[in-house]
Amino acid sequence: MAQKLRIIKKYPNRRLYDTEISSYITLEEVRQLVLDGESFEVRDAKSGEDLTRSVLLQIISEHEEKGQPMLSPQLLSQIIRFYGDSLQGFMGPYLERSLQVFLDQQQQFRAQLNSLMGQTPWSMLNELTERNLDAWKTMQRGFLDAAAQTAPNKTRKG
């Protein structure tokens, strides 16, 4: 059964209204929807414009300001450099696949850690690291091959 798309309306006063529970919610509650795997969209209450990305970016921004950030200034600078580049269209899907590979490996590591079966955690970690490295190399090779086929005469602006 397909999960119903939850609609959250954003009003001019920046308040968020969850139409499913008929109540105002906070950004932290939107974050919890993400953690819970809920499907939702944030829409401008007046125009109906999709504001989901900007709200998710706002949540990331707030969490980057607290504690230890995940996104270094160098990483953010590299991402910014891809905007307007001929390979911009490849970057989003590449990052999504990279993160999915990481999450899959993390889940596999946790499963293996729960059933050690005579192996030490270090040997399992080494084996997992080698497989993860192979997967990264394969994915990068595919990305570079696809980029070369799409834009053979274009070079990235420096």
Structure description:
- Helix content is 57%, strand content 10%.
- With 158 residues, the chain is an alpha+beta fold.
- A 4-stranded mixed sheet has the order 3-2-1-4.
- The longest helix has 30 residues, at 121-150.
- The chain is globular, with a radius of gyration of 20 Å.
- The protein starts with 5 loop residues before the first strand and ends in an 8-residue tail after the last helix.
- The mean pLDDT is 86.
How are the strands of the biggest sheet laid out side by side? 3-2-1-4
Low-confidence stretches: none
CA radius of gyration is 20 Å
Structural class: alpha+beta
Portion of residues in beta strands equals 5-15%
Tell me roughly what share of residues is in helical segments.
55-70%
The 3D shape can be described as: globular
| Record field, number of beta strands | 4
Largest sheet: 4 strands, mixed
Order of helices and strands: EEEHEHHHH
Averaged pLDDT, please?
Answer: 86
Number of helices: 5
Give the distance, in angstroms, between the N- and C-terminal Cα atoms: 48 Å
Write the layout of secondary structure elements.
Elements: E1 6-10, E2 16-18, E3 23-25, H1 27-35, E4 40-44, H2 52-65, H3 73-82, H4 88-114, H5 121-150
Parallel strand pairs: 1-4
Antiparallel strand pairs: 1-2, 2-3
Helix pairs in contact: 1-2, 4-5
Pfam families: PHB_acc (PF05233), PHB_acc_N (PF07879)
Domain PHB accumulation regulatory: 71-110
Protein name: Polyhydroxyalkanoate synthesis repressor PhaR
